[in-house]
């Protein structure tokens, strides 16, 4: 793209970087540099400072039907990204029906990308799609790590709803500074002040309005800016002409009161403004704006904007607010985990001066193969560079680097920290971290939780097998907590994940995105088995047939591993001398490992077990690797019952939030499900209950929680540990397993 088309800031950057590239010195060093002798111009090496300050990476999240899609649409229209507005026809003709930026499928606008880039007043704004479902902890974490700030959309009629609470909780957990936008002021029953007080009580927001609406419902005409003390009206067929006028005389008292409230709220968290406020100095617009910015970036305050995206009012001031109050990439501290130092946290400088660190946060199947979206946290990435995938250790060349515009791509030569770019032809999974090889940092922990639930799944028609496997491969790459395997006995495809909803969503996506109908078996919980006491084994495997026979003897013991050990299976050879030749030892270990893959109680893998080999015997002719492997398998089965095996089941850490009036019913139900309540807190009108509940008893819980709490309860569930089941449950599981086995063999 020629420099003439760019904005002045980008143009300056372009000229500077071109000039820098012509010098012999490296592109990024920390010193001033002089050009040729004829040109005494000195350029500060912080050329990127201005570019970074004019960059915003934001997400827009909201409860379903708060108008998030309509708002995104208007932002793209006013910033010139799209040239006409397509309405989303919801149930009531207002707002969007879906909660994700799946605009394209629903209504034919071309937002195909995970990060849409637009320009507003010489600032670059990347709008990043935030996932609608908060159950996928890994996906949500990645999306929120990429954001520097966010807009939380609230409906002026519905107020703070359950999903608003969940989304806000996630943002707080990942320290995302945010502004709030109260939408739909043109609707019947709109009451922004009620929503503001709800945000303070339910979301615990320290917030105040930075605007006051001029009229509400059908009379909604414009907004008064409390910082600049101006009234804004939106003219033109699509509200594109913003006209600033004096404040209407009948609103002056209300405006003065709300401005004072705003100053009071901000001065509670900003010392500089508090000083001016306490000494009764007049507070200028500029100093108030600076104070709001400081408090918002520090996450101590949330400015509240208002408007109606559907009626094209209030969107441009909101964009101004994003530039004024949300942080640029250098103002947000990001940390990486150093893999060389046992995942120790390292704070990244966030500047182009330093080693490259970039996170692949979203993958997309495009026309030209896999498109990988990268958020660069430090350093510079150039086309043709070699980068290293820390998660796999592979070295990759960057073949093509692009910046996404809604549906077309702009090829770029390089990109620096803070930017969001896409690369083609890089084979990776989402959540992988790339560096230039000088450091081994990852942006997210490489310890992926083990899946806790499995489903058998198969396509209805045989013809769609290709699409089916394509879907499963893609989902595995996108989500490290989603696994696909094959059941050796039944030959069925088994998908495993973090819970019922997690797997349901993927089955639904296979149906929607790949048009494959799949039949789903009953969910299965991933049990484990373990031993509780030491047991000796001494087994001789002898088989004489014509020719070479089989001979192998193994002696030793199995015992449980000590609590807190990092490995799940340990094998130790303590044979003194050559009772068993050393070349057979790996075969013995392999045999024990194979035997531990399925315990004899219910056929699930055996964990936390240590096997020690103390003696054995070999035959000069008949001993072979196979003989010792079989001896190990039979020895394990022989001593397994004596080691008092128990079944372990996955126990989940469940956090419930429900209005206090339902507390008794909800806790009674958890006790019925053999759960142990470990905490009970009060949060406003809600009770927050923390419990450890066996996953096997959590099937269908979301439905029963809804019916117990009139739809007001919500819960999150994450894997805690595998712990032994009670004696009666163990007996029941073993009997079921034996009955199934007998039925299969008959």
From TrEMBL:
Main function: Mitochondrial GTPase that catalyzes the GTP-dependent ribosomal translocation step during translation elongation. During this step, the ribosome changes from the pre-translocational (PRE) to the post-translocational (POST) state as the newly formed A-site-bound peptidyl-tRNA and P-site-bound deacylated tRNA move to the P and E sites, respectively. Catalyzes the coordinated movement of the two tRNA molecules, the mRNA and conformational changes in the ribosome.
Annotated source species: Vitis vinifera (Grape)
PANTHER family from the UniProt entry: ELONGATION FACTOR G, MITOCHONDRIAL
Keywords attached to this entry: Elongation factor, GTP-binding, Mitochondrion, Nucleotide-binding, Protein biosynthesis
SMART domains attached to this UniProt entry: EFG_C, EFG_IV
Localization of this protein: Mitochondrion
HAMAP family to which the protein is assigned, alphabetical: EF_G_EF_2_B (MF_00054_B)
Molecular function in Gene Ontology: GTP binding; GTPase activity; translation elongation factor activity
Upper taxonomic lineage: Eukaryota, Viridiplantae, Streptophyta, Embryophyta, Tracheophyta
Name by which UniProt lists this protein: Elongation factor G, mitochondrial
Binding residue positions for GTP: 62-69, 129-133, 183-186
KW Secreted (keyword) present: no
């Amino acid at each position: 793209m020629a420099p003439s088309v760019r904005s002045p800031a980008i143009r300056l950057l372009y000229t500077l970087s071109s000039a820098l590239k012509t010098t012999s010195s490296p592109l990024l060093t920390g010193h001033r540099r002089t050009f040729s002798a004829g040109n005494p111009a000195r350029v500060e090496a912080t050329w990127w400072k201005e570019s970074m300050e004019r960059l915003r990476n934001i997400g827009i999240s909201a409860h379903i039907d708060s108008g998030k899609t309509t708002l995104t649409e208007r932002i793209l229209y006013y910033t010139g990204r799209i040239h006409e507005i397509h309405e989303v026809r919801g149930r009531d003709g207002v707002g969007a029906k879906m909660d994700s930026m799946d605009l394209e499928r629903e209504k034919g606008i071309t937002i195909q990308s995970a990060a849409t880039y637009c320009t507003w007043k010489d600032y670059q704004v990347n709008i990043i799609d935030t996932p609608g479902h908060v159950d996928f902890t890994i996906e949500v974490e990645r999306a929120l790590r990429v954001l520097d700030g966010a807009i939380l959309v609230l409906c002026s009629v519905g107020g703070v709803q359950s999903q608003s609470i969940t989304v806000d909780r996630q943002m707080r957990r990942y320290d995302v500074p945010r502004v709030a936008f109260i939408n739909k002021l043109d609707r019947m029953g709109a009451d922004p002040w009620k929503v503001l007080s709800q945000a303070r009580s339910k979301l615990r927001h320290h917030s105040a309005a930075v605007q006051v609406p001029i009229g509400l419902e059908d009379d909604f005409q414009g907004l008064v800016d409390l910082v600049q003390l101006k009234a804004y009206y939106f003219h033109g067929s699509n509200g594109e002409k913003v006209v600033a006028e004096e404040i209407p005389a009948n609103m002056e008292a209300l405006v003065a009161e709300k401005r004072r409230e705003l100053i009071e709220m901000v001065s509670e968290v900003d010392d500089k403004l508090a000083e001016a406020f306490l000494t009764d100095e007049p507070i200028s617009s500029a100093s108030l704006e600076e104070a709001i910015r400081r408090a918002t970036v520090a996450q101590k305050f949330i400015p509240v904007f208002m408007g109606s995206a559907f009626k094209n009012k209030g969107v441009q001031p909101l964009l101004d607010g994003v530039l004024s109050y949300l942080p640029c990439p250098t103002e947000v501290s990001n940390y990486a985990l150093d893999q060389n130092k046992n995942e120790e946290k390292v704070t990244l400088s966030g500047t182009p001066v330093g080693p490259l660190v970039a996170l692949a946060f979203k993958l997309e199947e495009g026309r030209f193969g896999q498109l990988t979206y990268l958020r660069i946290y430090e350093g510079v990435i150039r086309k043709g560079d070699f980068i290293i995938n820390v998660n796999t250790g592979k070295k990759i060349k960057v073949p093509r680097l692009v910046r996404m515009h809604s549906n077309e791509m702009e090829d770029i030569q390089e990109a620096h920290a803070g930017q969001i770019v896409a690369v083609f032809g890089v084979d990776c999974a989402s959540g992988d971290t790339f560096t230039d090889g000088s450091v081994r940092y990852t942006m997210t922990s490489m310890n992926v939780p083990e899946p806790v639930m499995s489903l058998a799944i198969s396509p209805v028609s045989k013809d769609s097998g290709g699409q089916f496997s394509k879907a499963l491969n893609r989902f595995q790459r996108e989500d490290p907590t989603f696994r696909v395997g094959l059941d050796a006995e039944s030959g069925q495809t088994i998908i495993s994940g973090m819970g019922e909803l997690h797997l349901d969503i993927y089955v639904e996506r296979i149906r929607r995105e790949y048009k494959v109908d799949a039949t789903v078996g009953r969910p299965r919980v991933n049990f484990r088995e373990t031993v509780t006491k030491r047991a000796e084994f001494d087994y001789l495997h002898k088989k004489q047939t014509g020719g070479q026979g089989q001979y192998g003897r193994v002696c030793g013991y199995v015992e449980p591993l000590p609590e807190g050990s990092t490995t799940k299976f340990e094998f130790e050879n303590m044979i003194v001398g050559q009772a068993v030749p050393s070349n057979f030892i790996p075969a013995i270990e392999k045999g024990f490992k194979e035997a531990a893959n399925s315990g004899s109680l219910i056929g699930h893998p055996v964990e936390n077990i240590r096997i020690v080999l103390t003696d054995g015997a070999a035959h000069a002719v008949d001993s072979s690797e196979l003989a010792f492997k079989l001896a190990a398998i039979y020895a394990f089965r022989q001593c397994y019952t004596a080691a008092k095996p128990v079944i372990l089941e996955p126990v989940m850490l469940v956090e419930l939030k429900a209005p206090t009036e339902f507390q008794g019913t909800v806790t009674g139900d958890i006790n019925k499900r053999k759960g142990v309540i470990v905490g009970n807190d009060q949060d406003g009108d809600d009770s927050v209950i923390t419990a450890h509940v066996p996953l096997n008893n959590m099937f269908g819980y979301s439905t029963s929680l809804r019916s117990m709490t009139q739809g007001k309860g919500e819960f999150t569930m994450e894997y805690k540990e595998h712990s032994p089941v009670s004696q009666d449950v163990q007996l029941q599981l073993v009997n079921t397993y034996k009955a199934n086995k007998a039925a299969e063999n008959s």
